[in-house]
Each structure stands twice: as C-alpha cells, then as structure tokens.
Amino acid sequence: MERYKWNIKWIGTQSLNKNRVLLDLAGNAEVNTPMSKSNDSTSPFSRRKDTRLVKVGKVEIGSGRSIAIQSMAATKTQNIEATVNQIKLLTEAGADIIRVAVDSKADVIALAEIRRRTDELNPTISVDLQENYRLAAEVAPYVDKIRYNPGHLHHHEKSKPIKDKVAFIAKVAATHNIALRIGVNCGSVDPQKLLKFGADDVGAMVESADEHCAMLENLGFTRYVVSLKDSDWRKVVEGNRRFSEMRPNVPLHLGVTEAGMPPDGVIKTRIAFEQLISEGIGDTIRVSLTLPFEDKGQEILAGQEILSDIAAGRFRSVPPNFDEGLNIISCPSCSRVENEAFIELAQDIKVITKFAEKEDLTIAVMGCRVNGPGETDDADIGLWCGPTGVNLKKGEELIGHFSYTEIIPRVKTLLDKTISEKS
Ligand code: SF4
C-alpha cells in the first residue's frame, strides 16, 4: 500500500474555545471566520474551489463561505429527551448543522417534537434518510436539509426507477425550500455500480455521485451538496479529488466515516482534511468518532481544531508507521444503534486486541443492521450489532451471532486464527 509522505514540520496544537478564535502564525486573532477564502496567496485557503452557494437554513455552504462543522445525534430519535439533549450539547459545542436519523413514521413524529423543543436554540437540522426515501415528504417541514444515500434507494419499491425516486426527493426539497445532500459511502455504494467497477470502489462511488448530480440538475435542482466517504482516509482523499475535478462547482461535505475512537479516529480524519482542504476541496466537514453520547461535542472540537490548524498552516506530522498494524474502525453511532452496549463493545475490542497491534489487519465494529453488514465486508474481522447480540464475520463470511457477553472471547479466538492463517 502506497503511503502518503509527510514532509511538513510539527507545529503543535492550538486548541480553540467554542467561539472559534483563530490565531494566525503571528498570533493575531480572528474571531468566528474559520476557513473563509483568504486573500493571502500563501494561505492554504487562498486556493478554495469556487463552488456554488448552497443555503441550509441559516448556514451557507460553498462559494468561499466559512467551512461549516457538522455532527449527528447518536441517540435514538424516538428518545426525545435524549435527542434534545444531544442537540443542546452539540449546539453548545459550536455545531453549525446537526443531523438526526429518521427511519420510520414514529421517528418523524419524534422529530417534530424535537424541533419544537429546540426552537429557542434555532438549530440547523439535517435529516438522514437511509432506506426509506418516501419519508422525505413527512420530515421536510421540520428540517433544513435531507441527506439521501444513492446506495440505499433500491431497497424500497424495487421496480420504480431510481430517477423517479430522486425526482420525488427533489420535488419535496424544492416545495419545502430546503437543501439536499447526495451522501455516497464506499461501503454501501449502489450495487449496480459495484458490478461495473469491481475492485475500483472509489470509481463506483464517484460515478454514483456524479450520476445523482446529473439527475438533480436535469430536474433543475441545484441546491445540493455531495459527500463521498469511506473509513479509509486514502479513499476519501482520492474520491473527493476525482469528484472535484469532474464537478468543481459542487460544494463538498468531507468526512472519514467510521473513523473509530480518538485518538486514531481524529488522526485519520485530520490526514484526509489536511490534504483536501489545503487543495481547496471541502466546504463543510464532519468528524465521525465513536464516543459516549455525553462526549459527542468532541467531534465538533476536533473539527474546529483541525480547521484552525490548517488555516494557520499548522500541518501535523504523522508518525511514519501510523498506518501500520491493527486498524480498528467503528461507526460514530446514531439513532439506528440497536443496543447502546455497542460503544462499550468498540472500546473493549480495542483493549482485548492490543496483543495484535502489530498485525496488518482491520477489525470493523458497526452499530446496526442498516450499514453494519455492508460496511464490515472489507474488514478481516467484522462485528455488527443487533438488539440482543452481535454478528461476527470473517471477511464476507458470517461466523455466527453471539450475545454481548459471549462475543469478546469469540473475537479473540477468531483473531488468533486469522493471524495464524496469515503467517
Ligand atoms: Fe448509525 Fe448504523 Fe451507521 Fe452506526 S453503522 S452510524 S448505527 S447507521
């Protein structure tokens, strides 16, 4: 695997308060204008692509505006109290946009109440539609943006053409005066594209995004942003570079999905953002970390710190062996998490696999059945969580379903076996 060569010096950490005070290299402070297009031709931001402006509620994305920082409520949407608290916590941390997942009509009813109860905070809310694209019409009155995943549109109404489903979503967005995000993930890319591209999953991801841009634009709908995500920062960098060359005017939402736990999850994300943003690519970001619910504000703080460092030219050196050894990826959790024991499980997996830290293997730990099965396919060992147990996989093969108390020794045994098969 080709490794990115870092030849930049370590400059150090500049932590931020929630007002996002930026310090330039001379120590001059600039308040609340992170990542605006700079007139200084030596600034990493002087090269920002001239993307079009997309309004998401009160937030403006693209066209050289400040890079908006997003996060997502990790709680079950129907747990109204907990989700309201997540929105308060993320707003307090400085989130510009907060995403909430909606999978059912009961979630829509909860979302309406959540919106009502957070009115005084005036949050900018995006909703994540996974498989159930038809809920777009019901959630639209309560949100500022809808994210749909092109790779999930085939699940419902299988005989209906994808372009008709996209037309439905676009019409809903236009009627309610809200924005869209075409959110493509390498791990859940449109199956037709995977067939066409085979091992080039980045190519499949880029073509899928491009095709959906064309569908929206043919409908005259241009108020959208695009994201191309993967848990491997290299694929995030490559996919966004390729897409940005094809459609330089489309605002991009950057993120390394399932980056895992801090500090590794932050480092992977930082590597991708440093490369892309300093090339002028990226208009809004999300740092996805596996964290206890009460610590989700750390996603925003990590995003602020990364953006601040890039703005000031403080690129981090990365240890040359950072990408070597055991790679544990885990999702940031969201409303779909089947059992909150998932977060503890992800943390335990990190502890019990320490003995194998030098092994070049990937373990993926996912929180639900929606993305879990697909997102674990590429890992050497995959775990995806259900309400009462965990599905254990070796590559694409399902080994079995085990209770939360049984799973740890099973993973250890499977890891031992996988290591001995490799040697
Ligand atoms: Fe949410 Fe499932 Fe993705 Fe985890 S894997 S973030 S629980 S959709």
CATH topology of the largest domain: TIM Barrel
* Whole-number count of domains: 2
In the CATH scheme, the class of the largest domain would be Alpha Beta
CATH architecture of the largest domain: Alpha-Beta Barrel
Query: Secondary-structure element order, as H and E?
Result: EEEEEHEHEHEHEHHEHEHEHEHEHEEEH
SS-based class: alpha/beta
Mean pLDDT: 88
- N-to-C terminal Cα separation, in Å? 19 Å
What's the number of helices? 12
Based on DSSP secondary structure assignment, what is the total number of beta strands? 17
Which ligands are bound? Answer: iron/sulfur cluster
Instruction: List the uncertain runs.
Output: 1-34
Give, in spatial order, the strands making up the sheet with the most strands: 5-6-7-8-9-10-11-12
The general outline is globular
Radius of gyration: 21 Å
| Biggest sheet character | 8 strands, parallel, barrel
Which percent bin holds the helix content? 25-40%
